[in-house]
Amino acid sequence: MPVIAAVGGQWGDEGKGKVIDQLAEAAQLVVRFSGGDNAGHTVINPHGEFKLHLIPAGIFYPHVVCVIGNGVVVNPAVFLKEKAQLEKRGLGTGNLFISDRANLVMPYHRLQDNLEEKARGGKALGTTHRGIGPAFADKAARLGIRAGELMDKDAFRERLGSVLEYKNRLLTKVYEAEPLSFDEVFEQYMGYAELLTPHIKETTAMLEMAAREDKVILLEGAQGTLLDPDFGTYPFCSSSSPLAANGCLGSGIGPTDVDCVLGVYKAYCTRVGAGPMPTELHDETGDFIRNRAGEFGTTTGRPRRIGWFDAVAARFTRRVNGLTGTAITRLDILDVMPRLNVCVAYRLDGKIIDYFPADAAALERCQPVYEELEGWLTDTSAVRDYEKLPLKARKYLERMEELMLCPVNLVCAGPAREQTITKTPVW
Ligand code: IMP
After folding, report:
1. Which structural domain range is residue 161 located in?
2. FRET pair for 284, CA 20 to 30 Å: which of 71, 73, 215, 328?
3. Per the omega criterion (within 30 degrees of 0), is the bond before 134 cis?
């Protein structure tokens, strides 16, 4: 039985939470492998509506073991709040683990994120202000503090002491901000340590055992490929890799164990934060889709930027993830549109190109070349069989397949778990 990575194919918010919630029924383990609480996975299921930032979307099934992998940066306060909210609504968290190798988000990370964004002024990246960039930067700079280190009070004291001394110099001398109190941070994190202890674990052995026993393991991505620091719209990107390859690095599962890579795409495009978005709609069509779909950020509440489906970008994100299939979400949002545009190429400085440029400034100059398709003008939200979708909706999906060079496995036409159509099984 397979290991399946589910990753975002656009700029995040594609509906990965819903897809994982749906697939997790047949899984034994769900592992979040990247990002931090900058992510916001909305899940609507028989338990109600949930907005998860850190806890994997497999948490709604008592038989599923959920792991926050080493590739995630964990803010203990956010984790504990989310856990308490789930428990209050009757959901168990006994099967929820955090890799002892996961780096922690510390109070200075959030401060730094805010101060850095402020210093960028008009060139701000539009981060989620959750401290995620500084936390990943510290991991690379070997200044990070990992979840496992909370278990040893003396070692933690020493480590925090040396890191905080450096951070306070940065805060006061570069940003002219107030320093943080060592005692306060130490006490706060020792308080977290007590509450986190039952969850912190060496998780790679458990995952290897599960893979050997042919259990179904879902690797849950966060953000989207176009926010990847290598393949996304750098520097307008996040700071950990949302790609399938990081599903291995961020969980400790080797690439030879991964059987399927499912790319999750909206039937149109959205983006939050700054950076190029070639198909962005600045007109009333964009406003109409935003309002109809409720496209406001789960983490920050910001209005999302809206655009037509960008097949040039989708083909590129299919390639760099090695997708074996796709899930297309929010098809029902397009039910009322008489005509639809799909971007099939870009016009860059007078030339037609069919690739996704690496340079954000070049991408900013790209004008979309559209192919127009007819809308189906039929409610699809109650459809459960692919063949029962209106012909024009199937034509739209099949044109996406042709342009992306990748099959569609799942189609979502509504937020609820049952509003999912299987075109071809994921595995
Ligand atoms: P950061 O990850 O908070 O540093 O933000 C960097 C960029 O990624 C900003 O444009 C954010 O809006 C964007 N971003 C981060 N997480 C998400 C997400 O889960 N969905 C959509 N955009 C995100």
Report:
1. 103-197
2. 328
3. no
- Do 83 and 227 belong together in one domain? yes
Q: Are residues 224 and 127 in the same domain?
A: no
- Identify the pLDDT of residue 172: 97
pLDDT level of residue 107 (50, 70, 90 thresholds): very high
SS3 392: helix
| Amino acid making up residue 325 | G
The mean of the pLDDT values for the chain is: 97
Which is catalytic among the residues 21, 37, 41, 53?
41
Q: Are residues 204 and 255 in the same domain?
A: yes
What is the average pLDDT across 111-116?
97
What mean pLDDT is predicted for residues 267-293? 97
Taking alpha carbons only, the member of 323, 208, 318 closest to residue 259 is: 323
The pick from 128, 220, 231, 269 for probing ligand 1's pocket by mutation, whose C-beta has the most ligand atoms within 8 angstroms, reads: 128
212 shares its domain with 181 = no
pLDDT at 307: 98
232 in contact with ligand 1, CB cutoff 6 A: no
Residues 111, 64 within the same domain: no
Substitution site in 272, 280, 299, 306 for ligand 1 pocket (most atoms within 8 Å of beta carbon): 272
Give yes or no for residue 1 having a pLDDT over 60: no
Residue 301, pLDDT score: 87
Same domain, residue pair 275 and 340 = yes
Q: Is 225 in the pocket of ligand 1 (CB under 6 A)?
A: no
Q: Which atom of ligand 1 is nearest to the CA of 300?
A: 12
Candidate from 54, 223, 237 with most ligand 1 atoms within 8 A of CB, to mutate? 223
pLDDT tens string 82-100? 999 999 999 999 999 999 9
Are both 108 and 245 inside the same structural domain?
no
Q: Which two tokens stand for residue 280?
A: 């962005």
Under 8 Å between Cβ of 2 and 427: yes
pTM: 0.97
Phi, psi of 368 (to 5 degrees): -70, 140
**Is pLDDT above 60 for 151?**
yes
- Answer yes or no: is 427 within a domain: no
Same domain for 270 and 399?
yes
pLDDT digits (tens, 9 = 90+) for 282-312: 999 999 999 999 999 888 888 999 999 999 9
**Token digits of residue 332:** 């029902």
41 is catalytic: yes
| Protein residue closest via CA to atom 21 of ligand 1 | 12
* Distance between Cα 284 and ligand 1 center (Å): 25
